[in-house]
UniProtKB/TrEMBL annotation, chain B:
InterPro entries registered for this protein in UniProt: Thiolase, Thiolase-like
Source organism phylogeny: Bacteria, Bacillati, Actinomycetota, Actinomycetes, Pseudonocardiales
PANTHER family attached to this UniProt entry: ACETYL-COA C-ACETYLTRANSFERASE, NON-SPECIFIC LIPID-TRANSFER PROTEIN-LIKE 2
Superkingdom of this protein's organism: Bacteria
Protein name: Thiolase domain-containing protein
SUPFAM superfamilies (UniProt xref): Thiolase-like
Length: 341, 362
């Protein structure tokens, strides 16, 4: 089967986009200085570290900002202090300590010489915070050895009557060896981010064609190579791919691997084959599954055909093709695909 | 050692949102064409490539690899990347030419800030143990810095509004700026009737004490600079902008441990390059008060023209706005409008890290 040129669309379409929500629980080793700071937080105490010049840094720093000397003299400071500067956030962002309008503040705790950045809750009232204000810690209900054990600060005079809504608490930290609760080894910080991911115009046309069961490629006007998915720029020529080419859903395996290892989120029981599929008429392979035969039977040059999901399940995704499976035709000779490896 | 010069600069339109991908290809291909046309170079003439961008802006790993497609990177090229503003990529490329290893380099930066929630994403550049887990956003941190200056008398609301008004007026002459407009301090502070139909200056304390006009917009964009050895530069531009000094320094990441109304790193970098006699300075200040800090630390007097492009306050494409400041400063020399200019770039929260370069007519 040979590639067929298709008519370009008459009207330009908006590129496809979709929400992309990603998250990861960052697990961080904290070392001896921050480890003791975190462990003290779990006991509702705040530690600072004495710097080369005698200044007490809160939060503690591991090395002096001026001399770079390693620091390890930890000292207790108060859970009460003075606002050095503040700013108001009317619409708190996800994850921020207070989930109603609040003040970010630099707070110099009594006994400290540097200021700690944290939240001050005034019950949502922007007029109830000022520089020089005395504030004190409101501890989390169940401290775990994490900076968020300081839930937020409240004014010493006239604190809000109700507790502020807060973001979900972080997971418990891992404590020192042999359950030594005076140090914390690691802290866990969940990070969640939300994006709008946009496909390029070329990718969007390819994805929309997939929803119709077509394999739409584009040819580079510079070097004549046929790319699927099409590219915003040909990696050889640096120009957008333009001429559209409909490809068949048959091709060959150029190279492959047999997956024997189970992993989180795996959808198929191992062993199975992940392979580079080079469609007939294409110049670049893409990764897909080869099923329908024993993993040990898959070989380079093997002829394969797409196994499509039922039509009612199709959308703008390559997942419309469940996998590729052998056609039973004779293998392609190595020389015919050597330059695509 | 080899002298290095800027021979071409181009930037994509600064816009609030593109339909493009986060790999920047759509923004980069046209501006690469611009600098090729201007210099007569083609991609095979470029000795070294260096870019600045961030996976956190794109929300995916190794996003800069896709951007390399815009180059046409096969056969393989000599390439590097920094997860910083591309001004720091320019520093790397400058070094590469200084050593004599290559005699041309193309530096580019790009970012689609609109893909995520920028001010929240930027909190992940903070200390990951005691600060980032609180998600303090970039605007709130700058606002803490602004208040310290306001309450100590270091600057006034009027000073800040004056910076904003001048930036908007100047941006009228910059076709790539995100926005511009004739305005004045009284209008911005709400003490005069507004002439901008969309503005609501009385209700724009978006991060008290910062007002809307104090804060750089969220911008998608890209920029590119071509560097060449001074010898090669003479063939590529009529008036190359020779880099007579470039230096970058960093302050402690501990926000509460330094005086946020100063920027020692900017001062040190400025002293290292020598800022005397500068006619034009392009300062990368995403907040109005930060321009005042940088200007003071660099010792720039009233005779120095600040940000004739409109600056970052009228378009702040993440990871290329700093490079664009150097490009704008170089362009004054390339155009024959100045003989000694300064470009500044910043990175991190509250002016934590700063790069200063001085350019001269070759």
């Amino acid at each position: 089967m040979t590639a067929v040129e298709s008519e370009p669309a008459e009207t330009p379409e908006q590129p496809l986009s979709a929400p992309l929500d990603i998250g990861f629980d960052y697990t961080r080793s904290v070392g001896p200085v921050l480890g003791r700071f975190m462990a003290a937080l779990a006991q509702r105490r705040i530690l600072g570290v004495r710097g080369s010049d005698g200044r007490v840094h809160v939060p503690p720093v591991e090395y002096d900002p001026g001399t770079a000397e390693a620091l390890d003299e930890l000292v207790d400071v108060a859970g009460e202090g003075t606002v050095v500067s503040w700013s108001w956030i009317a619409d708190p962002l996800a994850g921020q300590p207070v989930q109603r309008p609040f003040a970010w503040a630099l707070v110099r705790l009594d006994g400290a010489d540097t200021a700690l950045l944290h939240a001050v809750d005034t019950g949502g009232d922007p007029t109830s915070v000022h520089t020089g204000q005395r504030v004190r810690v409101r501890w989390a209900d169940e401290p775990v050895g994490h900076i968020r054990d300081i839930a937020y600060f409240v004014p010493v005079a006239d604190p809000p009557a109700d507790a502020a809504p807060t973001a979900p608490a972080p997971p418990a930290a891992a404590t020192g060896a042999d359950d030594d609760t005076t140090t914390v080894d690691t802290v866990v910080t969940p990070v969640q981010l939300s994006y709008t991911h946009s496909a390029s115009p070329e990718e969007s046309r390819y994805l929309r064609a997939l929803a119709d069961g077509r394999m739409l490629a584009q040819r580079c006007p510079g070097c004549d190579k046929v790319y699927i998915p099409p590219r915003g720029a040909c990696p050889t020529c640096g120009v957008p791919t333009t001429d559209e080419v409909d490809l068949p859903d048959t091709g060959i395996v150029t190279t492959f691997c047999i997956v024997n290892v189970p992993f989180l989120g795996q959808r198929i029981a191992p062993p199975y084959v992940g392979a580079y599929i080079l469609l007939d008429g294409a110049d670049i392979p893409f990764l897909h599954l080869v099923l329908g035969c024993e993993a040990s039977e898959v070989r380079m040059g093997m002829r394969v055909r797409a196994a499509w999901k039922p039509r009612e399940e199709w959308s703008t995704t390559l997942e419309n093709i469940a996998h590729f499976e052998p056609t039973g035709e004779a293998d392609a000779p190595y020389a015919s695909y050597a330059h695509h490896l | 050692m080899t002298e290095v010069a800027v021979v071409a600069f181009a930037q994509a339109p600064n816009v609030r949102r593109t339909h493009g991908t986060t790999n920047g290809v759509e923004m980069l291909v046209p501006i690469f064409d611009e600098v090729y046309t201007r210099t007569g170079l083609s991609k095979t003439d470029i000795g070294f490539w260096c870019s600045g961008s961030s996976d956190y802006l794109a929300g995916r790993a190794f996003s800069f690899i896709s951007a390399v497609d815009a180059i046409g990177a096969f056969p393989p090229i000599h390439e590097s990347h920094v997860e910083m503003d591309a001004a720091w990529a320019l520093y790397e490329a400058w070094l590469k030419i200084r050593t004599g290893e290559v005699d041309t380099a193309l530096v580019y930066g790009f970012g689609k800030s609109s893909a995520g929630e920028l001010r929240r994403v930027l909190s992940l550049q903070l200390d990951p143990y005691t600060v980032a887990p609180l998600w303090p956003d970039s605007v709130s941190i700058a606002a803490l810095q602004a208040r310290l200056g306001l309450e100590s008398g270091r600057w006034t609301e009027q000073d800040l509004a004056e910076v904003a008004a001048r930036s908007r007026r100047d941006a009228a002459d910059n076709p790539r700026a995100q926005f511009s407009g004739e305005t004045d301090v009284a209008t911005l502070l709400g003490s005069a009737p507004t002439t901008e139909p969309t503005a609501d200056p009385t209700a724009d304390l978006v991060a008290d004490p910062l007002r809307r006009h104090d804060i750089a917009p969220v911008t998608d964009g890209a920029a590119v600079i071509v560097l060449a050895s001074a010898e090669r530069a003479r063939d590529l531009a009529d008036r190359p902008a020779v880099i007579s000094g470039i230096d970058h320094r960093i302050d402690t990441p501990s926000l509460g441990a330094r005086d946020l109304t100063t920027s020692p790193s900017t001062r040190l970098a400025g002293e290292a390059v020598g800022t005397d006699g500068v006619e034009v300075a392009e300062l990368h200040a995403p907040f109005t008060h930060q321009e005042l800090i940088v200007r003071d630390e660099l010792g720039l007097g009233d005779d120095v023209r600040i940000n004739p492009s409109g600056g970052a306050l009228t378009g702040n494409p993440m990871f290329s706005a700093g490079l664009a400041r150097i490009g704008e400063a170089a362009q004054r020399i390339l155009d024959g409008d100045a003989t000694r200019t300064l470009g500044h770039a910043t990175s991190g929260p509250a002016l934590q890290q700063n790069l200063v370069t001085v350019l001269e007519r070759g």
